[in-house]
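Structure in, sequence out. Go:
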């Protein structure tokens, strides 16, 4: 891998939107850094995209620090950081396992915040780009959805991070997918959903803009999604 190629770090990279983004980033000339807990899937994808696979639990600060340090040690820079790790659960505050609620909050909210903190110095150095995976559910509350509440938090973090990075040259984009047909869901969508590739193209659109253009939010719904 050429040392002058930009580096694109992705959490939650083993499947779905993260994996699709890694493929598109590699095609666009980036060196992908793939982070997730599933080592076998990461290694397979790394071989496909000529990327660097690093096991990382985003809820652990030591893992996030090690992810960034190894990236810098081996590749020398971070140009794009995509805080994409997250998962959902059943709707209804009387549904689901409270232990899973805790893990969802830690992953979707705390993990996202840790990625911002861990990558901040490197992004300032490269005048790079931070992206966060939000959701349509982070713009309107869903009935009984704690997941929706976590994505509202991510929406707030997107703007808070933009303000924190202001005047550093770092751009911040919140990616807000509607219904996407990925392993995130236990059952296939009932409408023609988006594909992970649709979201990956939106990510690459945001990062491909000129340095003075900061696409702050991209809300992407399937044509058939009513709300």
């Amino acid at each position: 891998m050429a040392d002058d190629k930009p580096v694109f770090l992705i959490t939650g990279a083993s499947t779905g939107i993260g994996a699709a983004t890694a493929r598109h980033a590699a095609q666009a000339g980036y060196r992908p850094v793939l982070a997730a807990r599933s080592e076998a899937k990461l290694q397979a994808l790394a071989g496909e995209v000529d990327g660097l696979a690093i096991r990382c639990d985003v809820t652990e600060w030591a893992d996030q620090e090690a992810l960034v340090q190894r990236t810098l040690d081996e590749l020398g820079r971070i140009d794009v950081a995509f805080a994409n790790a997250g998962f959902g659960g059943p709707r209804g505050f009387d549904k689901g396992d409270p232990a899973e609620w805790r893990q969802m909050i830690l992953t979707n909210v705390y993990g996202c915040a840790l990625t911002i903190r861990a990558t901040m110095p490197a992004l300032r150095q490269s005048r790079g780009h931070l992206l966060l995976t939000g959701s349509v559910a982070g713009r309107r509350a869903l009935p009984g959805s704690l997941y929706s509440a976590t994505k509202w938090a991510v929406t707030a973090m997107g703007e808070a991070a933009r303000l924190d990075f202001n005047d550093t040259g770092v751009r911040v984009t919140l990616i807000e997918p509607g219904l996407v047909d990925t392993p995130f869901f236990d059952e296939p969508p009932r409408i023609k959903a988006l594909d992970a590739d649709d979201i990956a193209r939106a990510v690459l659109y945001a990062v491909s803009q000129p340095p003075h253009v900061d696409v702050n939010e991209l809300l992407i719904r399937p044509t058939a999604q009513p709300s």
